[in-house]
Design goal:
Blueprint lengths: L1 E6 L6 H16 L3 E6 L14 E7 L11 H8 L7 E7 L5 H14 L3 E8 L2 H10 L2
Parallel strand pairs: 1-2, 1-3, 3-4, 4-5
Helix pairs in contact: 1-4
């Protein structure tokens, strides 16, 4: 299965890089073909319609608040025909309202027609190994 991991994380942080690498490694071990895209850099010519499974990863607010980036819905609506595709919503834990942020992300993804089959709040890099096994 072809999996696209689209993230809104900082590429400079080593913890974010480690989490993305762990997700990719464990999904590859299950036999999936994984491509990682940064929403900040790769979003302009991105076409997700060639992928079977779409995974979105966003950071939660530092302390309080559960807003998702406004760019999420813009990006999903402009990246091709993705309605009806399976998807996962993942949030990096960093505040008190990570679960509410995940719920808001799921709503935004379902509004675009994605069928969510997995969601989680990633606590650390070790937990990303577990989450990577669930993708696909």
């Amino acid at each position: 299965m072809r999996i696209a991991i689209l993230h809104f994380l900082d590429d400079d942080k080593s913890s974010h890089k480690t989490i993305l690498q762990n997700l990719q490694r464990t999904a590859n071990a299950k036999g999936h073909e994984v491509s990682i895209f940064s929403a900040k850099k790769d979003a302009y010519n991105l076409r997700l319609s060639i992928y079977d499974y779409i995974c979105l990863i966003i950071p939660s607010s530092p302390v309080f608040g559960s807003k998702i980036p406004s760019r999420v819905s813009e990006l999903l609506s402009s990246c091709g025909a993705i309605s009806g595709k399976k998807a996962a919503a993942l949030v990096l834990k960093s505040g008190f309202s990570s679960n509410k942020t995940a719920r808001n992300l799921m709503r935004a993804m379902e509004r675009e027609g994605l069928k969510l089959d997995y969601f989680d709040v990633i606590k650390n890099a070790d937990h990303a190994n577990y989450v990577g096994k669930k993708l696909g």
